[in-house]
Amino acid sequence: MRALTLSALLLGTSLSATAQSEDYVYGGFQLGLSGAVDDNLRGVEGSNLNLQMDKELGFVTGFYVGRNIDKWRYELEYALRQNSMQSVFVNNPDRLALPAGRNEADGTHQSDSLMANVHYNFANIGDWKAFAGAGIGMSLIELDGVNSNGISIADSRNWEPAGQVMVQLTRAMGGLEFGIGARHFRTARGDFGTAARKASYRFVNNEVFARISWKFGETSHPAPQEPAPKAVAQPAPAPVVQEPAPAPAPEPEPAPAPMPGPFMVFFDFDKSTLTADAQSIVERAADVYRDFGGTRISAIGHTDRAGANNYNDALAMRRAEAVKAALIAEGVPASRITIRAEGETSPMVATDDGVREWQNRRVEIIVRR
Fold this sequence. Notes:
Blueprint: H1 2-16, E1 21-36, E2 39-43, E3 50-55, E4 58-69, E5 72-92, E6 101-104, E7 106-125, E8 128-148, E9 151-173, E10 176-187, E11 190-194, E12 197-201, E13 204-220, E14 263-266, H2 276-291, E15 296-302, H3 309-329, E16 337-343, E17 362-368
Parallel strand pairs: 15-16
Antiparallel strand pairs: 1-4, 1-13, 2-3, 2-12, 3-5, 4-5, 5-6, 5-7, 7-8, 8-9, 9-10, 10-13, 11-12, 14-17, 15-17
């Protein structure tokens, strides 16, 4: 009688074990290789600049959190992708003193993206699940210290809409899940400040990646009810060994404190010498560079709209050079400082041509890690 009762209990247990665990929260991190498609930096607003930017193979990393419901996954993702500049092919240099053709280049092409993704489990292959997905979001795209032969090309960043499509294979391993996949990522074209006035550029990356995920709060849907089978005498079952619960995911490290700035240094009309107030702002920027772990500083010179364009371009460069000299005097290495001049093309306050406006006579200092 005891054997019959145990047999019936085991049969009931085997039926409930056929349920599929389909509803849970997951989170993890990813790492992979990212190839940036060669694209052109094109001048806008009267600029004829046309440069093809060639990049080296880079990396993509990030983390994500989401929820799996049956065959669907809804996910929030942060991803950082970066590629080093390899060369620049000059089709039209506009104001840049670059020879036509291919030139070696330095600097980085980087994006920080926040995406909302949806994945669908369209097939199962043995222990592997196949997903197809798409996502939309925003990306902070940056051309960081891009130059050729010491000539500054672009050092600017901008938020732009972004989208991506991807496929991946995943396999459950206890409380963990391993995944591999491929992704196509791109942004809308954004305007960047360059040494030859404004230009537009977009990021396009093709990637392969691997993921490690932790699953939390996993629940099961009951299997369809079937008639209870007749009890059959069976040997006493072996004791059931319960596997230990998976270790909790590690706490993410706190984000570093935001970098103060940018710092605005203002000048008297038609002057490139620093006033006492301007000198104190330069000293503050140098302190931030040292105290917040800065690795580079950009100084961008501007003028108001009084005077000829060529004269204002030269005046803006003299102002940027004066700020660079003051930063060097405060202990910032010259190799860590890049300068450029935008003349009257990027006013802080919009005015008519010929108008003197003190807020436009400035040098913008940006400190970066």
